[in-house]
Amino acid sequence: MSVFNAYMSLSGATDADVLRDEKLSRRTSYRIGGPARLLVLVHSYAALGKVVDVLAEEHVDWVILGKGSNVLASDAGYEGAVIILDDEFARVTVDAEQGTVTAGAGALLSKVVADAAKAELSGLEFCVGIPGTVGGAVSMDAGTRREWIGRCVRDLVVYRPGEGLHRYEGHEIEWGYRCTSIPTSEIILEATLALKKGERAAISADMESRLARRRRTQPMGKPTCGSVFRNPTDGSAGKLVEACGCKGLSSGRAQISTEHANFIVNNGGASAADVLSLIQLMHDSVLANSGVDLRCEVKLLGFGE
Ligand SMILES: Cc1cc2nc3c(=O)[nH]c(=O)nc-3n(C[C@H](O)[C@H](O)[C@H](O)COP(=O)(O)OP(=O)(O)OC[C@H]3O[C@@H](n4cnc5c(N)ncnc54)[C@H](O)[C@@H]3O)c2cc1C
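# flavin-adenine dinucleotide complex -> structure
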């Protein structure tokens, strides 16, 4: 693998910015993570094909990153290239007549939610307060226990390395709890969401009450990654962790949130190793206490996965 050759080929030659040894702590909501050997901000569809081809030619592994709000990056960083979809991928178009919002994978989910509400389109209220991009949300099938974004996806455009663009109908994809059937080798480029006509006041009221609930129950203003574990069927991961007496426990500068036991907060200067040791502690304590084998929701980056 020649990261250097890939850097030389891509620098200045494509509609992309290529950074060397960019700290992932600057790109993840935990504010944790060592350097990515390459970080490529891709500005256009045309550039994405070129970037992926060059990385393949140079045998450089790559991964797509949205806003890093569901990723724990290792302290050692990532040996390959982290690709971020920018500019042309951040477009959002609302068709109020058709009741659709078409958004690039790099668009902020919060903007999509706000634009839909402004156009009096209902159906995305449950996404209010979920950080990150449309690509990240689709990849994770983000949502709540009862509502998830896959239910709104009418169609999806992805990039298949070596092949080109491919369009899925929403119903062709299996949407699961924080997972989908979209292969990890495919890059999500754009989603069209089908919504229904609503009333501005009702949409705003619903969003406000959901935000208020988040403010009441989740740690605000501290670096986190949201829920660490998926909720088991008919159970709450947070309650299971709390029942073990783990709430508030620390490892280094990382702490199991005192507000929500399924969140880990970075109290400033936490390492990935600190967070991982808490994840292990939470998992093992719950298994010993209640026999439930919790499954991690957070994606690991740079751990040799
Ligand atoms: C305070 C807080 C609250 C949260 N609340 C919720 C919640 O209520 N519900 C919920 O579901 N999540 C929640 N999350 C988790 C997180 O916000 C979501 O999973 C979000 O959708 C991730 O988006 P992202 O852009 O940050 O993706 P990232 O974290 O950057 O990436 C997540 C995964 O998606 C992949 N990915 C990203 N973009 C693409 C793409 N274009 N193509 C292919 N793969 C891609 C990445 O490779 C990675 O595997 C919360 C997080 C925080 C910090």
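# post-check
The chain has three domains: 3-87, 91-202, 220-301.
The first strand starts at residue 16 and ends at 23.
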